[in-house]
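Worked example 3 (structure in, sequence out).
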């Protein structure tokens, strides 16, 4: 069996009522449906939406299929032991030309009971933002369920949710239960659990082209919301040239920032997980298992768990996000 290599996937573009044209104009992502492209699903293993390999001898196969063939060689022993061949992360680029709905996601327990699915904890890394654009996260104060319903019924949800003016490089950690929304004029990458369960709370009284409002999930959201969460969950991290800087860590993913202008060797021999690279600036060449693949801004690559060592060679000054599934330290 041939050795695994840095795997590129075909982006799956999704048109949204709030989407824009930046993903096509800036990163050349092609769409047949129009210019309001809100999301580019870069790496996804969900049934019916599994990403298709775009390079190498696995070209044309889905992520689902190659996970079934290569199992722990692709995913890592610990990841495979926990998730089987179900890929545990979903990677997206999001272009919010208009603001998204205020929403919340259930945790693993609730999602399992209600939907037989995983919950949704996620994080955002802001790639670009129009001056003055905001992201909404968490309540401005601890509130009760009854107070929340009062704000909701009066159409004043924006009065109780934190609105943070954002800049390129800002990071938001969004655990399940935290109310949130992306404001208009924000381009970001989203790293999340493999889940597409969203409870839409408030949609700014917006209507589609036929004059209809989108469905709200008021009842489902009531028990999913953490009413005590009064933090913005904003993380402003200072990059360090040619060093790996941790951005966010959870049981589901560990994400770091690599800003570099010289080659870097990464040792993943103890990581026991696949690694995902997301390029946000410039470009680089990724070498592992005797193979090399170029990555440029707006692209992602999946590094198999079998790659104990990876060499990253920048073209100029490059910026990558590094993502993997963290493992609990082994006890003696």
């Amino acid at each position: 069996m041939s050795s695994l290599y840095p795997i590129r996937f075909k982006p799956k573009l999704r048109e949204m009522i709030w989407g824009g044209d930046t993903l096509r104009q800036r990163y050349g992502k092609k769409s047949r449906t129009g210019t309001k492209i809100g999301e580019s699903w870069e790496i996804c293993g969900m049934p019916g939406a599994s990403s298709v390999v775009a390079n190498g001898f696995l070209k044309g196969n889905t992520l689902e299929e190659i996970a079934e063939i290569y199992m722990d060689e692709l995913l890592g022993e610990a990841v495979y032991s926990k998730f089987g061949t179900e890929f545990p992360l979903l990677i997206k680029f999001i272009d919010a030309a208009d603001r998204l709905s205020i929403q919340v996601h259930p945790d693993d327990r609730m999602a399992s009971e209600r939907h037989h699915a995983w919950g949704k904890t996620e994080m955002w890394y802001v790639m670009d933002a129009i001056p003055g654009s905001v992201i909404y996260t968490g309540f401005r104060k601890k509130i009760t369920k009854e107070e929340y319903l009062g704000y909701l019924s009066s159409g004043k949800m924006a009065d109780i949710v934190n609105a943070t003016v954002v800049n390129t490089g800002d990071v938001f950690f969004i655990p399940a239960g935290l109310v949130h929304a992306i404001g208009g004029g924000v381009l970001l990458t989203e790293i999340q659990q493999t889940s597409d369960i969203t409870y839409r709370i408030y949609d700014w009284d917006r209507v589609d082209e036929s004059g209809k409002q989108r469905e709200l999930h008021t009842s489902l959201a009531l028990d999913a919301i953490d009413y005590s969460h009064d933090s913005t969950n904003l993380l402003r991290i200072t990059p360090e040239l040619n060093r790996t800087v941790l951005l966010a860590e959870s049981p589901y993913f560990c994400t770091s920032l690599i800003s570099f202008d010289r080659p870097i060797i990464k040792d993943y021999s103890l990581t026991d997980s696949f690694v995902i690279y997301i390029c946000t600036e410039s470009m680089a060449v990724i070498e592992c298992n005797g193979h090399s693949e170029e990555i440029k801004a707006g692209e992602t690559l999946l590094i198999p768990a079998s790659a104990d060592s990876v060499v990253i060679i920048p073209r100029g000054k490059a910026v990558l996000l590094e993502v993997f599934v963290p493992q609990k330290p082994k006890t003696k």
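Notes: Helices lie at 22-27, 63-70, 72-75, 77-83, 108-115, 145-153, 218-222. The first strand starts at residue 12 and ends at 20.
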